[in-house]
Specification:
alpha+beta; Butyryl-Coa Dehydrogenase, subunit A, domain 1; 4-stranded mixed sheet; 4-stranded antiparallel sheet; Butyryl-CoA Dehydrogenase, subunit A, domain 3; 16% strand; Butyryl-CoA Dehydrogenase, subunit A, domain 2; single chain
């Protein structure tokens, strides 16, 4: 069996790399950091023009008709350039569930405009006491043909710009998935400070109305929330892969150019071993990430694979970031250099939607209960 990426997948990744390398330079990121919000509108428009924002959308929805693997290869390149482009929350967490579970009207209302870069949507998947969107504390109550939502979502990217925020809420013993208008009465947005400077918001809902046409799914919504969560986690793993791989390459190049005792420090055995450990971590993260991605694309059960990939994403991000800073010496934290951004993103991605320690415990419980690796 051939496990290599096919030509189309590699072409999508190459196109993404070319655009992001040209437009998401260190100088451009320095400019973006001075803005009120960390969002590169020019880059977003170019990604849309190239068709990358709609890579995983059907042609009927204004996309290229590719799969989840192509999308994750694109996201890996976003991580490689730590680009100011919210691809995961907009495309994976919000748009893909609409394509999967939404009505034709909902798909046509949002997806072509998202693919064209003309409309932003996002997702609020986390709560203070619930990182998993399939187990929310937010409550949904019927209100005419729609619903009223009461609860609070945290760490919601670009909620202030979004036309809709995908949220989950408890309905009896099940879960509903809704497209919340953040501008309706009963919704309060409070800016939050994120590690990566990406604009995050707390979205507090106090009887916020969701019209019938914005109800995504209420019958079987828990499974839909899990579907969304697993793809979001896998996408963040792909992003972490790009972050960690570029950190490793940057460090390898630095140790070849930095001299001590008239020789490159990369010639020291201890430095080589440290860099080799990073390479091994990145390789393992790539394997586990794309194993999970491939199963998700085939709509196979991938709960274990996604959990394992996220554990590796957390551990790899942590270890590679630590090693990169160590081998760079004081240069690594200099803001005139670019490694500091990678360290911030590695840390945020490590903790997003579950830390390695928490997920390792959850995986252990599944194995002990006989719920894992049954096939």
């Amino acid at each position: 069996m051939d496990f290599a990426f096919n030509e189309t997948q590699l072409e999508v990744q190459k196109l993404a790399n070319q655009i992001l390398t040209d437009l998401s330079t260190t100088e451009r990121l320095n400019e973006i950091d001075k803005q009120e919000e960390r969002f590169d509108e020019n880059l977003w428009a170019q990604l849309a023009e190239a068709g990358l924002l709609g890579a995983a959308f059907s042609e009927e929805n204004g996309g290229m008709g590719f799969g989840f693997t192509e999308l994750c290869l694109f996201i890996e390149e976003v991580g490689r350039r730590v680009a100011a482009a919210p691809v995961v929350p907009v495309i994976v967490s919000a748009a893909l569930p609409i394509q999967k579970f939404g009505t034709v009207e909902q798909q046509q209302r949002f997806l072509p405009a998202v693919a064209a870069g003309k409309k932003l949507i996002t997702a609020g998947l986390s709560e203070e006491r619930a990182e998993c969107p399939s187990e929310p504390f937010t409550i949904a109550e019927t209100s005419g043909a729609g619903y009223k939502l009461t609860g609070t979502k945290i760490a919601v990217p670009f909620a202030n710009r979004a036309e809709r925020v995908l949220v989950t809420a408890k309905i009896g013993n099940d879960v509903g998935v809704f497209l919340l208008d953040p501008k309706v009465d009963g919704v309060t947005l409070t800016a939050e400070r994120s590690t990566t400077l990406e604009p995050w918001f707390e979205v507090a809902m106090n009887g916020a109305e969701v019209a019938a046409e914005d109800v995504l799914i209420v019958d079987g919504g828990k499974a839909a929330a899990q579907w969304t969560s697993e793809r979001t986690v896998a996408a963040y793993c792909a992003m972490q892969l790009g972050v960690a791989d570029e950190s490793t390459r940057t460090t390898a190049a630095f140790t070849c150019d930095r001299y001590q005792f008239d020789v490159p420090i990369g010639s020291f055995q201890a430095v080589q071993h440290r860099a080799a450990d990073c390479f091994i971590d990145v390789t393992c993260l790539k394997l586990t990430t794309y194993q999970a991605v491939s199963r998700l694309e085939l709509e196979l059960d991938a709960t274990n694979e996604v959990t394992i990939a996220k554990i590796w994403a957390g551990d790899t991000g942590h270890r590679v970031s630590y090693a990169a800073q160590h081998l760079h010496g004081g240069t690594g934290i200099d803001k005139d250099y670019h490694l500091w951004r990678y360290s911030l993103w590695a840390r945020q991605l490590e903790m997003t939607l579950g830390s390695s320690a928490a997920l390792l415990g959850a995986l252990g419980e599944r194995i002990a209960a006989g719920e894992a690796f049954q096939n």
